[in-house]
Design a protein that fits this description.
It comes from Schizopora paradoxa. This is N-acetyltransferase domain-containing protein. GO terms for molecular function: protein N-terminal-serine acetyltransferase activity; protein-N-terminal-alanine acetyltransferase activity. The protein has seven helices and ten strands. The radius of gyration is 22 Å and the shape is globular. It has a domain of 172 residues: Aminopeptidase (3-Layer(aba) Sandwich). By secondary structure, the protein is of the alpha+beta class.
Protein backbone atom coordinates (compact mmCIF):
# COMPACT_ATOMS: atom_id res chain seq x y z
CA UNK A 1 0.00 0.00 0.00
CA UNK A 2 1.42 3.39 -0.99
CA UNK A 3 1.21 6.58 1.04
CA UNK A 4 2.36 10.18 0.97
CA UNK A 5 2.86 13.06 3.40
CA UNK A 6 1.16 16.29 2.34
CA UNK A 7 2.21 18.31 5.38
CA UNK A 8 3.25 21.89 4.71
CA UNK A 9 4.50 24.26 7.40
CA UNK A 10 1.99 27.05 8.05
CA UNK A 11 2.55 30.18 6.00
CA UNK A 12 3.08 33.23 8.24
CA UNK A 13 0.24 35.73 8.10
CA UNK A 14 0.82 39.14 6.65
CA UNK A 15 1.81 41.79 9.18
CA UNK A 16 -1.48 43.66 8.76
CA UNK A 17 -3.35 40.49 9.76
CA UNK A 18 -1.71 40.18 13.17
CA UNK A 19 -4.55 41.93 14.97
CA UNK A 20 -7.12 39.72 13.27
CA UNK A 21 -10.50 40.67 11.91
CA UNK A 22 -12.69 43.36 13.38
CA UNK A 23 -14.94 42.07 14.89
CA UNK A 24 -12.44 39.51 16.13
CA UNK A 25 -13.00 35.80 15.47
CA UNK A 26 -12.08 33.90 18.67
CA UNK A 27 -12.38 30.58 16.75
CA UNK A 28 -13.35 28.64 19.89
CA UNK A 29 -15.02 25.22 19.88
CA UNK A 30 -15.78 25.27 23.62
CA UNK A 31 -19.48 26.05 24.26
CA UNK A 32 -18.84 28.72 26.89
CA UNK A 33 -21.48 30.82 28.60
CA UNK A 34 -19.65 34.13 28.95
CA UNK A 35 -22.30 35.46 31.32
CA UNK A 36 -21.08 32.88 33.87
CA UNK A 37 -17.54 34.27 33.74
CA UNK A 38 -18.23 37.37 35.80
CA UNK A 39 -18.90 38.18 39.45
CA UNK A 40 -18.88 41.36 41.50
CA UNK A 41 -15.07 41.49 41.42
CA UNK A 42 -13.88 40.00 38.13
CA UNK A 43 -14.99 39.83 34.51
CA UNK A 44 -13.42 37.50 31.94
CA UNK A 45 -13.68 38.37 28.26
CA UNK A 46 -11.85 36.99 25.22
CA UNK A 47 -8.47 38.56 24.54
CA UNK A 48 -8.75 40.86 21.51
CA UNK A 49 -5.29 41.84 20.24
CA UNK A 50 -6.35 45.32 19.10
CA UNK A 51 -7.49 46.05 22.64
CA UNK A 52 -5.18 44.03 24.88
CA UNK A 53 -1.87 43.38 23.10
CA UNK A 54 -0.24 46.73 23.89
CA UNK A 55 -0.94 46.44 27.63
CA UNK A 56 0.41 42.88 27.74
CA UNK A 57 3.56 44.03 25.94
CA UNK A 58 4.00 47.02 28.27
CA UNK A 59 3.55 44.87 31.39
CA UNK A 60 6.11 42.32 30.18
CA UNK A 61 8.63 45.04 29.42
CA UNK A 62 8.15 46.62 32.84
CA UNK A 63 7.96 43.36 34.82
CA UNK A 64 9.71 40.59 32.84
CA UNK A 65 9.65 38.37 35.93
CA UNK A 66 5.96 37.55 35.33
CA UNK A 67 7.11 35.68 32.24
CA UNK A 68 9.86 33.77 34.03
CA UNK A 69 8.19 30.34 34.27
CA UNK A 70 6.12 30.51 31.07
CA UNK A 71 7.21 27.96 28.44
CA UNK A 72 7.45 30.28 25.44
CA UNK A 73 9.94 32.84 24.18
CA UNK A 74 9.89 36.30 25.71
CA UNK A 75 8.02 38.67 23.35
CA UNK A 76 10.48 41.43 22.53
CA UNK A 77 8.08 43.39 20.32
CA UNK A 78 4.39 44.14 20.11
CA UNK A 79 4.32 41.98 16.99
CA UNK A 80 5.65 39.04 19.05
CA UNK A 81 2.72 39.43 21.46
CA UNK A 82 0.23 39.45 18.58
CA UNK A 83 1.84 36.34 17.07
CA UNK A 84 1.60 34.64 20.48
CA UNK A 85 -2.11 35.47 20.73
CA UNK A 86 -2.72 34.26 17.19
CA UNK A 87 -0.62 31.09 16.97
CA UNK A 88 -1.03 29.73 20.50
CA UNK A 89 -4.70 30.57 20.99
CA UNK A 90 -6.78 31.95 18.12
CA UNK A 91 -5.67 29.31 15.62
CA UNK A 92 -6.47 26.39 17.94
CA UNK A 93 -10.22 25.78 18.52
CA UNK A 94 -9.57 23.96 21.81
CA UNK A 95 -7.76 26.99 23.26
CA UNK A 96 -9.20 30.29 24.40
CA UNK A 97 -7.40 33.25 25.99
CA UNK A 98 -9.28 35.53 28.40
CA UNK A 99 -8.53 39.03 29.57
CA UNK A 100 -9.02 39.35 33.34
CA UNK A 101 -10.67 42.64 34.34
CA UNK A 102 -10.62 43.73 37.99
CA UNK A 103 -13.91 45.50 38.62
CA UNK A 104 -12.74 46.72 42.05
CA UNK A 105 -10.23 49.04 40.33
CA UNK A 106 -12.30 51.22 37.99
CA UNK A 107 -10.75 52.21 34.69
CA UNK A 108 -12.02 54.22 31.75
CA UNK A 109 -9.34 52.84 29.46
CA UNK A 110 -11.54 50.04 28.13
CA UNK A 111 -15.09 49.94 26.86
CA UNK A 112 -17.55 49.23 29.67
CA UNK A 113 -19.09 46.30 27.79
CA UNK A 114 -15.66 44.69 27.52
CA UNK A 115 -14.19 45.37 30.95
CA UNK A 116 -17.21 45.74 33.20
CA UNK A 117 -15.64 49.07 34.15
CA UNK A 118 -12.54 47.41 35.58
CA UNK A 119 -8.80 47.47 35.00
CA UNK A 120 -7.02 44.94 32.79
CA UNK A 121 -5.26 42.71 35.35
CA UNK A 122 -3.77 39.87 33.30
CA UNK A 123 -4.79 36.85 31.26
CA UNK A 124 -6.07 33.34 31.92
CA UNK A 125 -6.66 30.59 29.39
CA UNK A 126 -8.17 27.22 28.67
CA UNK A 127 -5.80 25.12 26.59
CA UNK A 128 -5.60 21.57 25.24
CA UNK A 129 -9.35 21.19 25.64
CA UNK A 130 -10.82 17.83 24.61
CA UNK A 131 -14.60 17.95 24.31
CA UNK A 132 -14.89 14.16 23.71
CA UNK A 133 -12.97 13.55 26.94
CA UNK A 134 -14.53 16.47 28.83
CA UNK A 135 -11.15 17.79 29.92
CA UNK A 136 -9.13 20.99 29.73
CA UNK A 137 -6.09 22.76 31.18
CA UNK A 138 -5.78 26.18 32.84
CA UNK A 139 -2.90 28.60 32.26
CA UNK A 140 -2.52 32.19 33.45
CA UNK A 141 -0.41 35.36 33.64
CA UNK A 142 -1.40 37.97 36.23
CA UNK A 143 0.16 41.43 36.02
CA UNK A 144 2.55 42.48 38.78
CA UNK A 145 0.36 44.99 40.62
CA UNK A 146 -2.56 42.54 40.76
CA UNK A 147 -0.63 39.59 42.19
CA UNK A 148 -1.37 38.37 45.74
CA UNK A 149 -4.84 39.93 45.56
CA UNK A 150 -8.35 38.63 44.93
CA UNK A 151 -7.74 38.69 41.16
CA UNK A 152 -6.25 35.27 40.50
CA UNK A 153 -8.44 33.25 42.92
CA UNK A 154 -11.58 34.83 41.46
CA UNK A 155 -10.51 34.53 37.81
CA UNK A 156 -9.43 30.91 38.20
CA UNK A 157 -12.44 30.13 40.38
CA UNK A 158 -14.90 31.46 37.80
CA UNK A 159 -13.29 29.48 35.01
CA UNK A 160 -12.91 26.24 36.97
CA UNK A 161 -16.47 26.46 38.28
CA UNK A 162 -17.85 26.93 34.79
CA UNK A 163 -15.83 23.99 33.51
CA UNK A 164 -16.72 21.53 36.29
CA UNK A 165 -20.32 22.46 37.12
CA UNK A 166 -22.86 20.23 35.40
CA UNK A 167 -25.17 21.69 32.75
CA UNK A 168 -28.01 20.81 35.14
CA UNK A 169 -26.56 22.85 38.04
CA UNK A 170 -29.50 24.92 39.38
CA UNK A 171 -27.37 27.95 40.33
CA UNK A 172 -24.64 28.18 37.69
CA UNK A 173 -24.93 25.68 34.81
CA UNK A 174 -21.53 24.69 33.48
CA UNK A 175 -19.81 22.54 30.88
CA UNK A 176 -19.79 19.35 32.96
CA UNK A 177 -16.12 18.61 32.33
CA UNK A 178 -14.66 15.63 34.16
CA UNK A 179 -11.14 17.01 34.44
CA UNK A 180 -9.39 20.38 34.68
CA UNK A 181 -5.63 20.08 34.84
CA UNK A 182 -2.85 22.45 35.80
CA UNK A 183 0.70 22.02 34.51
CA UNK A 184 3.40 23.93 36.37
CA UNK A 185 7.15 24.05 36.04
CA UNK A 186 8.36 21.70 38.78
CA UNK A 187 10.56 24.53 40.11
CA UNK A 188 7.67 27.01 40.28
CA UNK A 189 6.63 26.37 43.87
CA UNK A 190 4.37 29.44 43.96
CA UNK A 191 2.34 28.18 41.03
CA UNK A 192 2.05 24.69 42.50
CA UNK A 193 0.89 26.09 45.84
CA UNK A 194 -1.59 28.40 44.10
CA UNK A 195 -3.10 25.38 42.39
CA UNK A 196 -3.22 23.41 45.62
CA UNK A 197 -5.04 26.27 47.35
CA UNK A 198 -7.73 26.00 44.67
CA UNK A 199 -8.06 22.27 45.31
CA UNK A 200 -5.77 20.86 42.60
CA UNK A 201 -3.96 17.64 43.50
CA UNK A 202 -0.45 16.77 42.42
CA UNK A 203 -0.62 13.58 40.37
CA UNK A 204 3.01 13.14 39.49
CA UNK A 205 5.67 14.75 37.34
CA UNK A 206 6.06 14.72 33.56
CA UNK A 207 9.80 14.63 33.06
CA UNK A 208 11.27 16.54 30.09
CA UNK A 209 7.78 17.81 29.30
CA UNK A 210 8.76 21.03 27.52
CA UNK A 211 11.59 22.40 25.40
CA UNK A 212 12.13 25.93 26.68
CA UNK A 213 13.05 28.96 24.57
CA UNK A 214 16.66 30.08 24.57
CA UNK A 215 17.52 32.03 27.71
CA UNK A 216 15.03 30.29 30.01
CA UNK A 217 16.23 28.54 33.15
CA UNK A 218 15.84 24.78 32.94
CA UNK A 219 17.57 21.41 32.76
CA UNK A 220 20.54 20.92 30.47
CA UNK A 221 19.95 18.37 27.68
CA UNK A 222 22.49 15.88 26.36
CA UNK A 223 25.16 16.67 23.80
CA UNK A 224 23.80 16.64 20.25
CA UNK A 225 20.21 17.39 21.31
CA UNK A 226 18.25 18.43 18.16
CA UNK A 227 16.91 21.57 19.84
CA UNK A 228 20.43 22.55 20.88
CA UNK A 229 22.18 23.09 24.18
CA UNK A 230 20.74 26.59 24.49
CA UNK A 231 17.16 25.23 24.62
CA UNK A 232 16.86 23.76 28.10
CA UNK A 233 14.15 21.34 29.22
CA UNK A 234 11.67 21.32 32.06
CA UNK A 235 9.72 18.81 34.09
CA UNK A 236 6.02 19.49 34.67
CA UNK A 237 3.95 18.51 37.67
CA UNK A 238 1.02 15.89 36.79
CA UNK A 239 0.67 1.80 37.95
CA UNK A 240 2.00 1.02 35.36
CA UNK A 241 1.77 -1.77 32.82
CA UNK A 242 4.39 -4.43 33.37
CA UNK A 243 5.28 -4.71 29.69
CA UNK A 244 6.13 -1.00 29.58
CA UNK A 245 8.16 -1.23 32.77
CA UNK A 246 10.13 -4.13 31.36
CA UNK A 247 11.09 -1.89 28.44
CA UNK A 248 12.37 0.72 30.87
CA UNK A 249 9.44 3.12 30.97
CA UNK A 250 9.29 5.15 34.16
CA UNK A 251 5.97 5.47 36.00
CA UNK A 252 5.24 9.16 36.58
CA UNK A 253 1.73 9.20 37.93
CA UNK A 254 -1.90 8.78 36.97
CA UNK A 255 -4.08 11.27 35.12
CA UNK A 256 -7.49 10.84 36.71
CA UNK A 257 -10.61 10.96 34.50
CA UNK A 258 -8.37 11.34 31.47
CA UNK A 259 -10.62 9.71 28.88
CA UNK A 260 -14.32 9.28 28.19
CA UNK A 261 -14.68 5.75 26.83
CA UNK A 262 -17.09 4.59 24.12
CA UNK A 263 -20.55 3.59 25.25
CA UNK A 264 -20.58 -0.03 26.43
CA UNK A 265 -16.92 -0.04 27.48
CA UNK A 266 -15.79 -1.14 30.91
CA UNK A 267 -14.79 1.82 33.03
CA UNK A 268 -15.71 4.08 35.90
CA UNK A 269 -19.22 5.39 36.29
CA UNK A 270 -19.45 9.20 36.01
CA UNK A 271 -21.65 11.38 38.21
CA UNK A 272 -25.36 11.89 37.67
CA UNK A 273 -26.24 14.23 34.76
CA UNK A 274 -22.76 13.93 33.24
CA UNK A 275 -22.95 15.35 29.66
CA UNK A 276 -21.70 11.99 28.34
CA UNK A 277 -23.22 9.86 31.06
CA UNK A 278 -23.50 6.77 28.87
CA UNK A 279 -19.72 6.78 28.39
CA UNK A 280 -17.68 5.45 31.33
CA UNK A 281 -14.39 7.10 32.27
CA UNK A 282 -10.85 5.93 32.82
CA UNK A 283 -7.70 7.05 34.58
CA UNK A 284 -4.52 7.06 32.49
CA UNK A 285 -1.12 6.00 33.76
CA UNK A 286 1.74 8.20 32.59
CA UNK A 287 4.88 6.35 31.56
CA UNK A 288 7.93 7.71 29.81
CA UNK A 289 11.44 7.06 28.69
CA UNK A 290 13.53 10.23 28.69
CA UNK A 291 16.99 10.77 27.31
CA UNK A 292 18.65 10.49 30.72
CA UNK A 293 17.05 7.05 31.16
CA UNK A 294 18.08 6.09 27.62
CA UNK A 295 21.77 6.79 28.18
CA UNK A 296 21.70 5.25 31.67
CA UNK A 297 20.93 1.69 30.64
CA UNK A 298 17.47 1.72 29.07
CA UNK A 299 18.89 1.60 25.55
CA UNK A 300 20.59 -1.68 26.40
CA UNK A 301 17.50 -2.89 28.25
CA UNK A 302 15.34 -2.34 25.17
CA UNK A 303 17.84 -4.20 23.01
CA UNK A 304 17.83 -7.09 25.48
CA UNK A 305 14.04 -7.29 25.35
CA UNK A 306 14.09 -7.11 21.56
CA UNK A 307 16.70 -9.86 21.32
CA UNK A 308 14.68 -12.30 23.41
CA UNK A 309 13.47 -15.32 21.47
Amino acid sequence: MSFFNNFKPPVPDQENELYGQDPYDINCAIPLNFAALENDRIKLTPVIPRIHAQEVFDQLQEHPEIHHHLPFAFPNTLEDVCVWFRDRFQKIPGHIHFAVHDKTRPSRKYDLAISGGGSFAGTIALISTSLPNLSTEVGFMIFHSFQRTHVFPNAAGLLITHCLNLPSDPVSPGLGFRRVQWFANSDNIRSIKAGEKLGFRQEGMLRWHSVLPEGKEGIKPREGDPAGQEHLGRHSNVRSIKAAERLGFHMEGTIRWHRALPEGSEGMKPREDDPRGQCPGRHTAILSICWDDWVSGVKEKVKTVMDRK
